[in-house]
Every structure is written in structure tokens, then in C-alpha cells.
Specification:
It contains 9 helices and 13 strands. The protein is α/β, with parallel strands linked by helices and 408 residues long. It folds into 3 domains: 4-106, 3-Layer(aba) Sandwich (Rossmann fold), CATH 3.40.50.2300; 144-214, Orthogonal Bundle (Helix Hairpins); 223-407, Histidine kinase-like ATPase, C-terminal domain (Heat Shock Protein 90), CATH 3.30.565.10. Helix 2 packs parallel to helix 3 and helix 5 (108-180) runs antiparallel to helix 6 (183-214). Bound molecules: adenosine-5'-triphosphate (ATP) and magnesium ion. Residues 271, 275-276, 279, 331, 333-336, 344, 349-351, 354, 359-365, 388 line the site of adenosine-5'-triphosphate. Magnesium ion binds next to helix 8.
Length: 408
């Protein structure tokens, strides 16, 4: 049992008698004190499970005031113990919501019953409070989810309206041009229709991805892929839609194939490369580098660098010392302000230096989720006006010799 009890009683002989009886009943007496002030001190020293408190105490503080103070600072139940008390004191005592009341003189058994009932009631009340708190936390989390979903929906409605308007206007222009002839104008309108539809498609894809990720429905499905071919195709696709004509280059390594989830990898790399292009309004080079890290002391450099300009998510990548595939996307663009680096993976976050460059702030949230789903980590190093490098490390899982990483 080992229930610890503090006895607050100013009559030394009575206090000793109570302490003796409590010990006989199998309780541990943490201390016997004679004033409310001492009781508060002792409680701070050795947290008892219950306080047996005489109402009439010597000194400035009586038992009721001491119980009030104990109740406001701790969750320890008090049982009052007194020979007599006037009505006013009794009323005050009631207001402190005591867990029991024992009238002196009392039998040993009265003491035991009062203590056990008080402890039991306290246990039930604590459990009820905990259950209430848990349900409050659950309610808050449901509300937070609903709030986020609302945010998606209103953002989607807003963002889909712009390209939709562009499509409608372009279609009207095309209709007018059909009668008036005008190849150049038709070409422009068609281009607008094309890019607006692409934007709507991308947003719908992003929202579906986030919805599935939040519902825990996204799964990682690793299969062997030819890395070099995969990256070359991706760069070629992105180069096609890149009007600004950045130089997109692939820096391959000795790793040519791997076992990875193709869809997730596509989502990660395309978002990072699109960002690299988008946030380099003056053009320049965008490179995609591949690396294989053995995760041993033999590796030349650490995967993620540590500096005020860098950020990485190690918590999601405990096996940083095991073999990994590294993908780096480097650009020479506007960079990310040091103070905002910690926020870029947050949903809807956009840095202040983006100016007129459009975006929804969803891409990197999606990338982080896709990286985490594969047990990887993502890091970013950036300097404003110089450029940005995103590093993705995905764990290499040893598979059968047929499917192992092949090296040239
Ligand atoms: P979208 O949802 O269309 O991807 P977005 O590009 O604004 O919109 P994220 O890809 O999540 O959203 O990026 C978040 C923010 O991080 C960007 O708005 C931008 O401020 C910053 N950022 C991301 N990549 C780069 C980069 N390569 N260079 C500079 N800033 C970047
Ligand atoms: Mg983006």
C-alpha cells in the first residue's frame, strides 16, 4: 500500500498518537507538523498522498486556509480532523471541497475508513479529470483537422477560380477569332488554356496527395528503377515546359539503378526542380546530382551540412550511417532568407522574397511527406542572392542480389 500521509496537528501528544495509529494501520507518515506554513513547506519537500489537517491551528494560518493553499497549488486531497468547530469555520471548510471530515475523538477504524474513502474519491476524480482532458485534446485535434480541411477547400476554390477564368476567357476569344481569323491570337489563347488547365491539374493532384497522406492512405511501393534514365526523362520533360530556358543538367554518379517508389521519387524531384526553376527568375543552371553514400567512415563529406544557412530533418532519418541514395537539386536563384528556412516545409508557407512568383506553398510539404514515407530525410542549404541546394537522402535497403543496386 505504502500511502504517504502528512499530519498537521498543533497538539504534540495528539499528533504523536495519530502518527502511531496511522503507522499501525500500515500508512507511512511523511512528517507531523504543527502549522499551516510548515505543512505547505513539507508538501513541497516530499509530496504526500494525503494530508490529515486539524482545523484549529496555532499561528496565522488555520487548517482551512492551509487546505485552500494546498488545493490551489497541488492535487493532494485533505481530510479535516477536529474536535469542534463553529458553524462559520465549518462553512469555510466545506468550500475547500475536503475529501473527508473526522471528528475527535475517533476510533482507529474511523480513521482508516475516512482515509480510504478520501483516497478512492481522489483517484476517481483524478481519472475523471484525465478523461476530460483527453477528450478535450481529442476534440481540439479533430477541430484542427477540420480547420485544415477548410483551409484546403477555400484555397482550392480560390486557386482553381483563376485558371478557370483564364480558360473561359480564352475560349471566348477563340470563339470570336474563329469568325475573324487570326492565327497569332488563337495561338496565345490556346497556350493560356493549356497552362491554366495544367495549373488546375497540379493543384488537384497536390490536394489529393495531401488528403491521402493525412488519411494515412499513402503507401511506399519500392520497385527497381533505372535511376539515370528516370532522371534524364524527368529533366527532359521539365525542360520542355521551361520557357525561361534554364540549363538543366544531370550529374550522375556510379549508381545507375535502385529500389525506390517511382511515384514518390517523381513527386520529390519534380517539385524540387520546378522550385529551382521558378525561384531562379534570372535563369542560370539547375543541376540534379546523384550520389551513393555507404554510410561508413569512408564517405568523403557528411550528407547534410551544418550551418546557419541550412536545415535538415534528421529525426526522420535515424540511420544516417547506413547506405543511402542522395539526390541534390542545386540552383542559382533568389535563395531563402535564413530566418525563414525553418518554415519552408510548413503547409502554405511562402517566403517573403517570392514577390510576384506564384505558388501555393504546398510543394515542399508534399515533398517532405514523400521523403518521410520512404524513411528518408531532406535538407536545405541556401543563401539569399546566391542559390539553394535541397538534399534528399533515401535509405538503401539491401535486397536480393537480383535486385541489389548495380554499380557501373
Ligand atoms: P507550390 O505549392 O506551387 O509548390 P510554392 O513553390 O510556393 O508553391 P513550396 O514548393 O512548398 O511552395 O515552397 C515553399 C516556399 O519555399 C516557396 O514559396 C519559396 O518561398 C521557398 N522556396 C522553395 N524552394 C526554393 C528555391 N529553390 N529557392 C528559393 N526559395 C524556395
Ligand atoms: Mg513549389
Amino acid at each position: 500500500m505504502n500511502t504517504k500521509i502528512l499530519v498537521v496537528e498543533d497538539e504534540v501528544i495528539v499528533a504523536e498518537d495519530i502518527a502511531g495509529r496511522l503507522k499501525k494501520l500500515g500508512y507511512t507518515v511523511t512528517a507531523t507538523v504543527s502549522s499551516g506554513e510548515e505543512a505547505i513547506e513539507k508538501i513541497a519537500e516530499n509530496q504526500p498522498d494525503l494530508v490529515l489537517m486539524d482545523i484549529v491551528l496555532k499561528g496565522h494560518m488555520d487548517g482551512v486556509t492551509a487546505a485552500e493553499k494546498i488545493q490551489s497549488n497541488t492535487n493532494i486531497p485533505t481530510v479535516f480532523l477536529t474536535a469542534y468547530a463553529d458553524d462559520k469555520t465549518l462553512q469555510r471548510a466545506k468550500l475547500t471541497n475536503p475529501f473527508g471530515y473526522i471528528v475527535k475523538p475517533f476510533q482507529q477504524n474511523d480513521l482508516r475508513v475516512a482515509i480510504e474513502i478520501a483516497l478512492h474519491r481522489h483517484e476517481i476524480e483524478t481519472k475523471m479529470r484525465q478523461a476530460l482532458q483527453d477528450s478535450e485534446t481529442a476534440r481540439e485535434s479533430v477541430e484542427e483537422k477540420a480547420r485544415r480541411q477548410n483551409q484546403y477547400i477555400s484555397m482550392a476554390a480560390h486557386e482553381l477560380r483563376n485558371p478557370l477564368n483564364a480558360i473561359l476567357i480564352s475560349a471566348e476569344i477563340l470563339e470570336i477569332d474563329r469568325t475573324r481569323q487570326g492565327d497569332e491570337s488563337q495561338g496565345r489563347s490556346l497556350k493560356l488554356v493549356h497552362s491554366a488547365t495544367q495549373k488546375m491539374n497540379q493543384l488537384i493532384d497536390d490536394m489529393l496527395f495531401m488528403g491521402r497522406a493525412e488519411a494515412g492512405k499513402l503507401k511506399c511501393n519500392p520497385l527497381p528503377i533505372n535511376l539515370v534514365e528516370f532522371c534524364q526523362e524527368l529533366l527532359a520533360q521539365l525542360q520542355l515546359g521551361n520557357e525561361a530556358q534554364h540549363q538543366l543538367i544531370l550529374v550522375p554518379s556510379d549508381v545507375t539503378s535502385a529500389i525506390l517508389d517511382q511515384q514518390l521519387l517523381h513527386c520529390i524531384l519534380s517539385n524540387l526542380i520546378v522550385n529551382a526553376i521558378k525561384y531562379s527568375p534570372n535563369g542560370g543552371q539547375v543541376s540534379l546530382e546523384l550520389e551513393y553514400h555507404q554510410g561508413t567512415k569512408g564517405d568523403k563529406e557528411p550528407i547534410f551540412c551544418l550551418s546557419p544557412h541550412s536545415l535538415f530533418t534528421t529525426s526522420q532519418f535515424p540511420n544516417i550511417n547506413s547506405p543511402s541514395l542522395i539526390f541534390r537539386v542545386r540552383d542559382e536563384g533568389i535563395g531563402i532568407p535564413e530566418t525563414e528556412l525553418g518554415k519552408i516545409f510548413e503547409m502554405f508557407y511562402r517566403c517573403k522574397n517570392t514577390g510576384k512568383i506564384k505558388g501555393n506553398g504546398l510543394g515542399l510539404t508534399i515533398v517532405k511527406k514523400a521523403v518521410e514515407l520512404q524513411g528518408g530525410a531532406i535538407g536545405c542549404e541556401s543563401k539569399v542572392g546566391i542559390g539553394t541546394t535541397f538534399t534528399v537522402a533515401l535509405p538503401y535497403v539491401a535486397l536480393s542480389s537480383k535486385t541489389e543496386l548495380s554499380k557501373t
